[in-house]
């Protein structure tokens, strides 16, 4: 089984925030692959299903972002999974909007959700970094990530989440670089980005 975790803050107040794009991506995966219904489990909501014949558990922690690791740790323990079975979808300030990078292990770049997960289970899990851009001043970061996406940003965000959902089977099969490149090329084909800007697999 693989554990696919979306990071965000619970409740309608935060639903459209940049910080919640991880939630949005995992919710899109559930819709695309007809995985339902969500149930309250593991200090959040979760749902089991299959993607390309592989069992998956989709999890949205119900704690606030800085306590995300509690839910992840509980799910890991229940299913006796390892860090290698975990894929975390999260917002990434250090990437331009709508860019995606897949990374295994490494630093947390000040992300409180990743910090909590790493503190609870260790650091060697896969991260799907969903670019939201940086406000340009460190002092503005907290306000920026807790703001809703602007009206003109939503078409790109929705396209990104749908394309992630359409291609998540590549992640499930361990084809991280193929997933990353497919996202990039499909987004470019839809008018979001530049096909010449080929991402690396870092």
From TrEMBL:
Keyword Magnesium: no
Main location: cytoplasm
Chain residues that bind tRNA: 14, 64, 66, 112
Family, per entry: Belongs to the PTH family.
Listed GO MF terms: peptidyl-tRNA hydrolase activity; tRNA binding
EC assignment: 3.1.1.29
Subcellular location(s) of the protein: Cytoplasm
A Pfam cross-reference name: Pept_tRNA_hydro
Coiled-coil annotated residue ranges, if any: none
EC class (word): hydrolase
Active-site residues, as the UniProt record annotates them: 19
Role summary: Catalyzes the release of premature peptidyl moieties from peptidyl-tRNA molecules trapped in stalled 50S ribosomal subunits, and thus maintains levels of free tRNAs and 50S ribosomes. Hydrolyzes ribosome-free peptidyl-tRNAs (with 1 or more amino acids incorporated), which drop off the ribosome during protein synthesis, or as a result of ribosome stalling.
Protein name: Peptidyl-tRNA hydrolase
Superkingdom of origin organism: Bacteria
Keywords: Cytoplasm, Hydrolase, RNA-binding, tRNA-binding
Site (Discriminates between blocked and unblocked aminoacyl-tRNA): 9
InterPro entries hit by this protein: Pept_tRNA_hydro, Pept_tRNA_hydro_CS, Pept_tRNA_hydro_sf
Subunit structure: Monomer.
């Amino acid at each position: 089984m693989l554990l696919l975790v979306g990071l965000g803050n619970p409740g309608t107040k935060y639903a459209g925030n940049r910080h919640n794009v991880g939630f949005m991506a995992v919710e899109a995966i559930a819709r695309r692959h007809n995985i339902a219904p969500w149930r309250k489990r593991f200090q959040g909501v979760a749902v089991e299903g299959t993607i390309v014949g592989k069992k998956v558990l989709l999890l949205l922690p119900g704690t606030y972002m800085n306590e995300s690791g509690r839910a992840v740790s509980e799910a890991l323990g229940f299913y006796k999974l390892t860090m290698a079975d975990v894929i975390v979808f999260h917002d990434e300030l250090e990437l331009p909007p709508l860019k995606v990078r897949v990374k295994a292990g490494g630093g947390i770049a000040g992300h409180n959700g990743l910090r909590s997960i790493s503190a609870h289970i260790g650091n060697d899990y896969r991260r799907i970094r969903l670019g939201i851009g940086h406000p340009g001043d460190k002092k503005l970061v907290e306000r920026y990530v807790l703001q809703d996406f602007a009206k003109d940003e939503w078409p790109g965000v929705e396209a990104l989440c749908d394309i992630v959902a359409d291609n998540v089977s590549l992640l499930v099969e361990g084809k991280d670089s193929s997933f990353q490149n497919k996202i990039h090329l499909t987004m470019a084909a839809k008018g979001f980005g530049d096909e010449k800007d080929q991402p690396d697999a870092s």
